[in-house]
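Field log, afternoon session.

UNIT: design team B
ACTIVITY: writing a sequence onto a fixed backbone
BACKBONE:
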């Protein structure tokens, strides 16, 4: 199954809400970091590539999925756009300062959390997140600059008719117009808020 939708937006830009929205619109299953978190066996191939030097195999990593959002998939937006030339690309965005505040309270904390011995796949996730993030987001100033540079790179590389820049809070209308599907008769999803992420992080340490 080739990807129909490639998510190029960084984590904490409404990616889990986008995952749910794409599922509602019929573009599921949608790959998201939660898929790896909740299915330990899915962490291994990502870890083997990012930390072990295995060849990048997008067909393996996204096997069974119609769409992809969030890290680690978003790290390979360029490779995915080349591999799946008919797929549309969605760049989820939000204010850089607001993004950093969310990132610093969630993913940054997760990277520094000591995982229990019975959750080795969570340590694998921490390891490969560290590999592809490196030190780019270690300070607020650098993180915001990297965030904006990433957006500029995606906009420059992907043709306008293939790309949707979806600002947080934009809801159904631009997304449905881009995908050519009707607007659902239900509110746009709002999932994985900062507090929900933090609560999940606490659970993982128990």
């Amino acid at each position: 199954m080739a990807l129909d939708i490639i998510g190029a937006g960084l984590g904490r830009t409404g990616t889990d809400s986008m995952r749910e929205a794409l599922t509602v619109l019929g573009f599921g299953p949608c790959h998201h970091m939660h898929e790896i978190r909740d299915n330990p066996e899915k962490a291994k191939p990502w870890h083997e590539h990012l930390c072990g030097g295995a060849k990048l195999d997008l067909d393996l990593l996204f096997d069974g999925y119609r769409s992809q959002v969030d890290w680690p998939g978003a790290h390979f937006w360029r490779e995915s756009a080349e591999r799946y030339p008919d797929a549309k690309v969605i760049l989820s965005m939000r204010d850089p300062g607001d993004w950093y505040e969310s990132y610093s309270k969630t993913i940054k904390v997760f990277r520094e959390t000591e995982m229990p011995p019975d959750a080795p796949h969570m340590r694998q996730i921490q390891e490969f997140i560290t590999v592809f993030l490196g030190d780019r987001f270690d300070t607020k100033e650098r993180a915001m600059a990297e965030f904006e540079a990433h957006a500029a790179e995606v906009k420059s590389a992907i043709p306008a008719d293939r790309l949707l820049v979806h600002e947080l809070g934009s809801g159904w209308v631009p997304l449905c117009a881009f995908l050519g599907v009707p607007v659902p008769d239900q509110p746009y999803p709002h999932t994985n808020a900062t507090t929900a992420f933090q609560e999940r992080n606490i659970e993982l340490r128990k």
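LOG NOTE: The CA atoms of residues 54 and 189 lie 36 Å apart.
NEXT ACTIVITY: expression trials, pending approval
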